[in-house]
Design brief:
Length: 136
């Protein structure tokens, strides 16, 4: 379950928790720290941006973990680095992860980036070998 801290990603978490409880399954909470600063922060130092983004990722995953615990859903967290769409699909395709469904928010934090590069959810939808559920 990719999270970026946006409202849509937490609505996707709610849907994932609902499904997890019905299907007695676990959730993988994942945050991808972009190695390329987003358009909004290009004027800042890229290394500092990654450090700040890592701290933000930890905060978001902690919040999501608390929501999972409150709902008695088993979970694990993953933080990875790179282009979010590519990293998510690589993670999904890894035979070590045994993922049956990706639940992802329809839009993330960066609407400006989406206009130029296409959304992460759209990329995952088209490149994933397993079903993808997009939550608005």
């Amino acid at each position: 379950m990719p999270l970026d801290g946006s409202d849509n990603s937490f609505r996707a978490l709610d849907a994932g928790i609902f499904l997890s409880k019905k299907l007695d399954s676990d959730i993988i909470l994942m945050y991808c720290v972009s190695i390329f600063p987003s358009i909004e922060v290009q004027i800042m130092d890229p290394i500092r941006c990654q450090i700040e983004e890592r701290k933000y990722a930890e905060k978001i995953l902690e919040k999501a973990g608390k929501i999972c615990k409150k709902n008695n859903v088993s979970f694990r967290t993953v933080i990875d680095y790179g282009s979010p769409g590519y990293v998510l699909v690589r993670f999904i395709k890894s035979k070590n992860n045994k993922i049956d469904l990706v639940v992802i928010g329809s839009r993330g934090r960066s609407a400006v980036k989406e206009v130029f590069l296409g959304s992460v959810s759209n990329y995952v939808l088209h490149k994933s070998p397993i079903p993808v559920m997009i939550v608005k």
